Amino acid sequence: MSSPGKIFNVEQVTNKDQVALETTALETTAAEARLEAPNRVVARQVEENARKEKESVEQVASIVKTLGPKYAGEPATAVGQFRGDSDSSKLTSTKSAAEQLQESASNATNTAVAESKHDVEDAKGVASTYVESYVQQAKDLANTAIETAQTYLPTSREEALKENRHPGWLYKARRRWSQESQSGLGPGLAS
């Protein structure tokens, strides 16, 4: 009689067992390389490289595991097929996990670039609207200032004479101000 996890009374190899075997093989190979190293410095370098490689493999394995069976290359289960979890790309996929990860990252990058371009175009549109608005406000302000100034200026020589402002009125006003400034009392304070 067979037990769960056994086939014909022989332990079934699981993914954990396979990783353990590969890790053991890696450690064994590293141990052999350490023993064959010509000196302690090289032996330490071999040991450090083996440790880094082991950490990298474990990190990649955990990432692939979190991504699910699509990237891990595990076959679809009957329950998954019944639920509709499996599609034909899972069953006939010939891409490696690294290729699939690279393709996924490329797609994500392309999507992000497209969204960024769209955001930049939106920002340009908003900015140009604001710039046009500010330019129009500046034009309106300048026109208002000109119109206001024109109401204070005489339109003709006859009008200037009516207001006792003959063509030399500005010259006389400047001269008077200059004299008052020189007296030390300031403009409008001289008697």
UniProtKB/TrEMBL annotation:
Q: Where is the composition biased (Polar residues)?
A: 99-113
Comp. bias (Low complexity): 89-98
Question: Where on the tree of life does the source sit, at the highest rank?
Answer: Eukaryota
Q: Where is this region: Disordered?
A: 73-119
Q: What protein does this entry describe?
A: Uncharacterized protein
